[in-house]
Design brief:
The chain is an alpha/beta fold and 317 residues long. The protein is 36% helix and 16% strand.
């Protein structure tokens, strides 16, 4: 093939006008495709994605086959920071209750105790703006899953075990959002509704806007479940044995019962709404897989009626 024949097989060199039209069409197609990519639903089965925040978070997901629009369950890991394992522990709940599951991973390097278990409310003893709280990441995660699924009103439930339970207990006090139920399982310490204990263990030492009666009232009105294993009686790894924590009880089960008792008594004395539940699963120790697989987890999440949404009036801090 000579040079002229070869050149005849090439597409014509684009004019400035045709190049501009092609460029515009390519750009338009890209822009139109972006919302479609952003709104792509979670895949069936196990997967993961990255939540694009200022501190990117890996999120492990699970959607059961035959999923037809059930709620979302957000699962929070313990101190081992093993979100993938926690996602796997929650698969039985996803299949049984027809839920989607997402499990964000808060690594130990960026999310030490003050940012994970205690939510980033304080940093070096100083209150932080709400936009800097770790709870804000959770709200962005939920918004992104809602966008992916095309369901802006997708109901959601939160469940955390051990350190994840500590995280959620404090979230229930300061930033519960629209959660239908917040399940706190076997935490090593709890946020007691009192100003007599310092923050993490109570509301002491916090500024008024984070510790006044309005905050306590809203905390007791939040849809919180203390989900306790009656066998969680020993000081296992990562048990908080500080002098302040020991004032709450000698074991995790003692602390959970004592916190519930104090909260119920305070609500009755002040005639405040009380939306907490205490659910115990007999014989189970400090084990997320066993807590998630126990039959009582249904009551912890949904009460007597699965997927019933509890309506609680929200009051901004």
């Amino acid at each position: 093939m000579d040079t002229r024949t070869a050149l005849s097989h090439l597409p014509p060199y684009p004019t400035q006008k045709s190049w501009a039209m092609r460029h515009f069409a390519l750009l338009l197609g890209t822009l139109l495709g972006l919302p479609m990519l952003a709104a792509k639903p979670l895949p069936v089965g196990s997967a993961h994605f990255t939540l694009g925040t200022s501190a990117p978070i890996t999120v492990f997901t699970y959607k059961p086959s035959g999923y037809v629009g059930g709620p979302l369950l957000v699962v929070f890991h313990g101190t081992s920071r093993n979100a993938e394992d926690y996602r796997n522990h929650a698969i039985s709940m996803a299949q049984k209750f027809k839920l989607m599951v997402v499990a964000p991973q808060f690594d130990a390097r960026r999310f030490k105790t003050d940012r994970y278990q205690r939510g980033g409310v304080l940093r070096n003893g100083k209150p932080q703006p709400q936009t800097q709280w770790t709870y804000a990441i959770v709200h962005r995660l939920i918004a992104q899953v809602r966008a992916k699924e095309g369901r802006p009103q997708l109901p959601y439930y939160l469940i955390g075990h051990s350190a994840g339970g500590q995280f959620l207990a404090r979230m229930a006090a300061f930033s519960p959002g629209e959660a239908s139920r917040i399940v706190v399982a076997n935490p090593s310490s709890l946020l007691f509704p009192t100003r007599e204990l310092p923050y993490g263990y109570g509301f002491g030492g916090l500024p008024s806007h984070l510790s006044n009666d309005k905050v306590l009232r809203n905390y007791l009105a939040s849809p919180l479940t203390l989900y306790l294993g009656t066998g969680d009686t020993t000081a296992s790894a990562n048990f908080d044995d500080s002098s302040t924590a020991m004032k709450q009880g000698l074991s995790r089960i003692e602390r959970g019962r004592a916190c519930f008792k104090m909260a119920r008594k305070l609500a009755a004395q002040r005639k405040w709404a009380f939306n907490w539940r205490k659910i115990e699963t007999r014989g189970v120790g400090h084990s997320a897989p066993q807590m998630f697989a126990a039959k009582e987890v249904k009551l912890a999440l949904f009460g007597d009626t699965p997927h019933r949404r509890l309506v609680v009036t929200r009051h901004p801090l």
